[in-house]
Amino acid sequence: MNIEKFNDSAELLKVVAHPVRLALVKFMIDNGPLNVTSLHEEFRMPQSTVSQHLSKLKSVKVISGTRKGLEIYYEVKDKRVETILDAVIISA
To answer: Which residues form the HTH arsR-type domain (predicted)?
Structure first.
């Protein structure tokens, strides 16, 4: 069996397997595209912390950002993440 084909999936699982990132992804799925300020206010954590988590999610293409004026709005693009959340989150 060729283990190399599992690298992408393993990297996705590693990035998503963090409580804050799971919560951010779930919130974006439920509420549509959001900017860093909205997420910072919702989760009551420093804006820089939110940005770092978004950067990790963006690095494996879980989310993408669209610029609207001065703001960037992030949304979940990888539908596999929704399946993962459905499988692992009992109630949120």
So the answer is: 1-92
Q: Measured in whole angstroms, how far is the alpha carbon of residue 16 from the centre of its chain?
A: 7
Token pair 């988590």: residue: 53
User: Residue ranges of the domains in the chain?
Assistant: 3-88
CATH architecture of 3-88: Orthogonal Bundle (1.10)
Q: What is the dihedral of CA 75, 60, 4, 84, to 10 degrees?
A: -40
- 3-state SS assignment for residue 72: strand
What beta strand segments (E) does the chain contain? 34-35, 63-68, 71-76
Residues in the chain: 92
CB 71 within 8 A of CB 37: yes
Query: Does the pTM of the predicted model rise above 0.90?
Result: no
